[in-house]
Amino acid sequence: MSVKILAIDTSTEHCSVALVVDDQWFVRREVSPRGHAQKILPMVDEVLKESGMTLNALDALAFGRGPGSFTGVRIGVGIAQGLAFGAGLPVIPVSTLEAMAQGAYRQAGATHVAAAIDARMSEVYWGRYARQEDERWAAVTPECVIAPETLVSQMNSDQETWYGAGTGWQAYQDALSGLPFSVVCGEVLYPDAEDIAFLATLAWQRGETVTAEEASPVYLRDQVAWKKMPGRT
Q1: Does pTM surpass 0.90?
Q2: Which domains does the chain have, with CATH numbers?
Q3: Residues 171/119, Cβ–Cβ less than 8 Å
């Protein structure tokens, strides 16, 4: 199926944009702890210019809907909504943890991925995924925010060797070493717009889109995020 989807991700230190036009890919990415709001739109302009496309000619716009940095996720959904509104495009929110699973498959052929993003406050954003024959990912462990020690105590053993993706593995190496299954950590540290775009093409084929108004972030730590907003205690 011919599809043209633009994806953006600002949920972590890694800022990225990807455009898929049929089987052609146009990607920009940069590790930058700050300045995502200033960097992302020029990156969008670059991939559109390189591809010869305009926003109005696309089928949909995808974004990393979290979990991740509260500020980064908020920037991503805001920019995605603004671009989609202006171009009249539907929106496809994609889990950042699932995107890392897809990144592990793209880079290392991994089919069982344990994704852990450092959530600060001595916690990780966590999810485990198994790749299906139709290229989708089944959530073996639903995404959550959890202390590594609590996670270790709740996990059951299994016979799979899991690919460890994300910054959480290094941040909490000692605690996570107690997990009751085998983990081989790889080089995928962050979600990437290229993998978000790929997952979005599958969602597009299934008709899983929302309007720009309906696009919403997933923080997992909603109560903490709410308290950090100006005027809240």
Answers
A1: yes
A2: 4-95+191-228 (3.30.420.40), 96-185 (3.30.420.40)
A3: no
